[in-house]
Design brief:
This protein has 238 residues and is of the alpha/beta class. Helix content is 64%, strand content 9%.
């Protein structure tokens, strides 16, 4: 079991290295992420409140996929390569508008994260409370009625442990996921933007990964798994 966990940790570290090597840091210690787009208008969602533009879900999903492999508390600078740069006076306004739309998107997401975190905590506490209450009721019933039917006893015990486990699951597993998402959204909200002229050339994305490095990673994973299986066989034979 521990050997398998070590294998997973090594694979995770190699995968992160494959992606993180494709990113550079600027003088402020921010990861530089290059993004190409035909126009800034294509990066807005079609549905938003008037006067409150929001970055499109497709764009934000692609950004999240790019930065997912980086350390969670990473700061970013997005270098956006606008292919159809018309060099108009309105373009600078449009660039500022998109930066606000991007921040607005992650501000809304952070609000939903906080709401989900509170709901998750409340449900977990309620489940824990009702689980403890059922255990207390069971103790009282056993004291008052020594010959309690086994069926009733089993139903109460199962219900209590289901509630307690649900509380544990939400606090121990779901809560870290929400916290991780909150931290990631916080750093995305505070990301900086810089725009460059394309001059007819599209700058390669940070996701241009060498396939050989990925194949090597999975080959190493297979070797590690075979090693773990052989060690388990030796242990079981003893």
């Amino acid at each position: 079991m521990f050997n398998f966990l070590k294998v997973l940790a090594r694979v995770k570290k190699r995968s992160q290295k494959i992606y993180s090597d494709k990113f550079t840091k600027n003088k402020n210690g921010e990861y530089v992420v290059h993004i190409s787009t035909p126009s800034l208008q294509s990066m807005y969602t079609d549905y938003s409140l008037e006067g409150n533009p929001v970055a499109s879900q497709e764009f934000c999903s692609n950004v999240e996929n790019i930065v997912f492999s980086l350390p969670i508390k990473s700061r970013f600078e997005f270098v956006i390569n606008v292919e159809n740069d018309k060099k108009t006076s309105d373009l600078s306004i449009e660039k500022s508008k998109f930066a606000l739309a991007f921040k607005h998107k992650y501000l809304l997401t952070s609000i939903l994260n906080e709401k989900e975190r509170r709901q998750n905590t409340l449900i977990a506490l309620m489940c824990l409370l009702f689980g403890a209450l059922l255990i207390g009721v069971l103790a009282v019933i056993e004291f008052v009625i020594p010959q309690i039917p086994d069926s009733i006893w089993e139903i109460i015990v199962i219900a209590a442990w289901v509630l307690v486990w649900e509380a544990f699951d939400r606090l121990a597993f779901r809560m870290p996921e929400i916290s991780t998402e909150q931290i990631r959204n916080f750093y995305l909200y505070h990301a900086n933007f810089r725009y460059v002229k394309s001059n007819g050339k599209i700058k390669p994305s940070n996701l241009s990964i060498n396939p050989a490095s990925i194949i090597g990673t999975f080959k190493k994973l297979d070797d590690d798994q075979k090693k773990v299986q052989s060690e388990n066989k030796k242990t079981s034979s003893i």
